[in-house]
Design goal:
Length: 449
């Protein structure tokens, strides 16, 4: 026989509680993240077993029970990703900064925020990492590839030639430490009512006329990764002064809308909420890259000082020319590029510099594949897509014609790639080291260039 509990016995009505206290002292997951995970990080950092044992002994003396989530939302401690965004707003002097999980995610967030989609074209340079182009296609836009000039950044004159009624945006890429000609790019964009999205993956900390790269256009995208001059692991950053573009970028980077004051509320303004992705920055990435970003300016000064010291010691050469800079004072300076007179000369100069003890390299006569060079973007040139429908290249909203994609479509850029000699600059070189590098360049190019 079942017994009906009198209503008055319910705890909600003042009766006794069934469960007064749990014997377990931790939550349902227990201490999910603790010393073991911290020690795994120490192992990843490469600390010896002996050092790790000492660390564990110290850590186990404490019992913090903080249980960090390692995600920025609903975290019991201040979010490192949010702290990175706050610092980025301060140091770059912008209203809005959004941390994401990669440079590609930064591009995707910015492209979608700016309305790149079916029927639109985006002008990008022939020299940039393939992600600049791939993110256009992933956003359902059509990439239009423009020539670079002797600064190894996008050529403003070719940009203007390639504008059509379908053009939505220009993406200048600040390559290997040197800025694009932003005055010319911004002038073209404003005259044609186009959006400018700076790709600053490779020149974080660089400036153009005293303004940080990534803050001049409508939006700026950064890769903060181990492959770039600033960054570690995988992370990215989006900057803008436009509140609406920021709101749309946040929707693309976090379709769960955790960033909103009330994430489950109805849309406040049409276009605020849509089917985005999950590009959120982790607390691990925020922690590490906040440290990286705080070093940015001092690092740029060291690189720039050493690059200018080397350049100041160079002779004039017969055929070999220096890469032109649009603002020498603002260059990051971690790469010195020479343009040799021919492909063969580039190979010979690079080999000779290596023999002299100077780190150098060149494509020259070597047929190496490189996804920083448009002619190897077969996904674009051959219009490869994830599904057989072929969108966006076959999109009915695109009123074409499609760009005439081919390996030789940017012949001037291809010639520059083949004649380029790249010399890595070390930020820690002494003045004597810089003088020695300049002497080696003079010695080699005096004979070969």
């Amino acid at each position: 026989m079942s017994t009906v509990t009198p209503e008055a016995s319910l705890a909600v009505n003042g009766g006794p509680k069934t469960v007064e206290e749990f014997e377990a002292k931790q939550g349902g997951w227990g201490l999910k993240v603790g010393v073991d995970e911290f020690m795994a990080l120490a192992d990843t950092w490469g600390y010896s077993e002996a050092a790790r044992e000492k660390m564990r002994d110290i850590l186990e003396e404490e019992d913090p029970y903080v249980n960090p989530r390692l995600t920025r939302y609903y975290n019991p401690r201040p979010s490192r990703a949010a702290m990175l965004e706050e610092y980025a707003r301060e140091v770059f002097g912008v209203k809005y900064a959004l941390g994401v999980n990669s440079g590609t995610s930064a591009l995707m967030s910015a492209y979608v925020a700016c309305g790149i989609g079916p029927g639109t074209e985006v002008i990008i340079p022939a020299y940039t990492f393939y992600a600049t182009a791939a993110a256009v296609v992933a956003s359902k836009g059509i990439p239009v590839i423009a020539e670079i000039d002797d600064s190894f950044t996008i050529d403003p004159e070719d940009v203007e030639r390639k504008i059509t009624p379908r053009t939505k945006a220009i993406v200048p890429v600040h390559m290997v430490g040197v800025c694009a000609n932003m005055d010319a790019i911004m002038d073209i964009a404003r005259r044609h009512d186009l959006v400018v999205i700076e790709d600053n993956a490779q020149s974080c900390g660089g400036k153009y006329k005293d303004r940080y790269l990534g803050t001049i256009g409508d939006m700026g995208c950064f890769s903060l990764s181990s492959y770039e001059v600033v960054g570690a692991g995988e992370a990215g950053l989006v900057l803008t002064n436009d509140e609406w573009l920021y709101i749309r970028a946040t929707s693309q980077h976090d379709t769960a809308a955790c960033w909103r004051p009330d994430r489950y509320a109805k849309e406040r303004t049409p276009g605020e909420l849509f089917c985005g992705q999950n590009y959120r920055m982790s607390e691990m990435a925020g922690t590490v890259n906040l440290v990286q970003l705080r070093r940015m300016e001092a690092q740029r000064v060291r690189y720039n000082t050493n690059l200018r010291a080397i350049l100041g010691g160079l002779d004039q050469f017969r055929d070999t020319k220096l890469r032109r800079s649009n603002d020498p004072d603002g260059d990051v300076g971690y790469m010195l590029i020479l343009a040799a007179g021919s492909r063969e000369s580039a190979s010979a100069i690079a080999d000779a510099l290596e023999a002299e003890g100077v780190p150098a390299g060149a494509r020259g006569t070597r047929a190496s594949r490189d996804w920083h060079i448009y002619s190897y973007w077969e996904q674009i040139l051959e219009q490869k897509t994830a599904t057989e429908e072929g969108c966006p290249f076959s999109c009915p909203y695109y009123e074409g014609p499609l760009p005439d994609y081919s390996e030789d479509m940017c012949a001037r850029s291809a010639d520059l790639f083949d004649r380029a000699v790249f010399l890595s600059v070390n930020q820690w070189w002494t003045p004597n080291d810089c003088a020695s590098v300049a002497a080696a360049i003079n010695k080699v190019c005096g004979f070969l260039g």
